[in-house]
Design a protein that fits this description.
Oligomer: single chain
Helix content: 25-40%
Number of domains: 2
Structural class: alpha/beta
Number of helices: 4
Shape: globular
Largest sheet: 3 strands, mixed
Low-confidence stretches: 138-152, 154-163
Strand content: 15-25%
Strand order of the largest sheet: 2-4-3
Radius of gyration: 18 Å
Mean pLDDT: 79
Length: 163
C-alpha cells in the first residue's frame, strides 16, 4: 500500500476548468483530467517563471515531487493540444489558500492592492483607475494552521464522489 500524498497548496481554484477544441462535438472527444496541483505547478513554473525549488516550497512539497507533477502536467497538455481532446481541471490532494482577498498589481503605476472578488467584475486600480491589473500570488500572506506538523489533507470531494 503506497503512503498517502502530502497535501499540496494551491493559491485558488481556476476560473475556467473546461477546455475543448473549437468546431468538434464533445461526444466525439476523449477527456483528459489535469489535477489542481498540476494546474498550480504550471502556473508557478511556466506563468510566474519560478524555479522548481521555489515553486515546490510554495506548494509545500519536495523539489522532486514538483518535478514529477510538472512533467505529468506538460504531458497531459501536449496530449490535449496534439490529439484534440477535452481538458478538464479537477481533483487532486490539495489545500486551497484563502480566496477572500485577492492581491492585484497595476501594470500602469505598479500599485499593489487587495480586493474581495466574488464575481467577474472588472478590477480597476484605486490609485490611477487603470483597468490594466493582474492578480499576484497570495502565498506570503497566508497562515497555515499547525504549520510545524506535516499535515495530510483529504482528497477533493470530487475525487471522493468518483470512487
Amino acid at each position: 500500500m503506497p503512503r498517502p500524498h502530502k497535501c499540496r497548496r494551491i493559491s485558488s481554484n481556476p476560473d475556467v476548468v473546461y477546455f475543448k477544441p473549437a468546431g468538434l462535438r464533445i461526444k466525439e472527444l476523449e477527456e483528459i483530467s489535469l489535477t489542481l496541483d498540476e494546474y498550480e505547478a504550471i502556473r508557478l513554473a511556466d506563468y510566474e517563471g519560478l524555479y522548481q525549488e521555489n515553486a515546490a516550497e510554495k506548494m509545500n512539497i519536495s523539489r522532486q515531487t514538483f518535478g514529477n507533477i510538472i512533467n505529468s502536467a506538460h504531458q497531459k497538455i501536449a496530449d490535449f493540444l496534439l490529439n484534440a481532446k477535452v481538458l478538464v481541471i479537477k481533483g487532486g490532494v490539495i489545500e486551497i489558500l484563502n480566496e477572500k482577498n485577492k492581491k492585484f498589481r497595476c501594470k500602469e503605476c505598479n500599485n499593489t492592492f487587495k480586493r474581495n472578488i466574488n464575481t467577474f467584475n472588472t478590477i480597476n486600480c484605486p490609485r490611477c483607475k487603470s483597468s490594466e491589473v493582474h492578480q499576484i500570488s497570495l502565498y506570503e500572506n497566508f497562515e497555515f494552521k499547525n504549520q510545524r506538523r506535516k499535515r495530510m489533507c483529504k482528497r477533493n470531494r470530487e475525487d471522493e464522489d468518483e470512487k
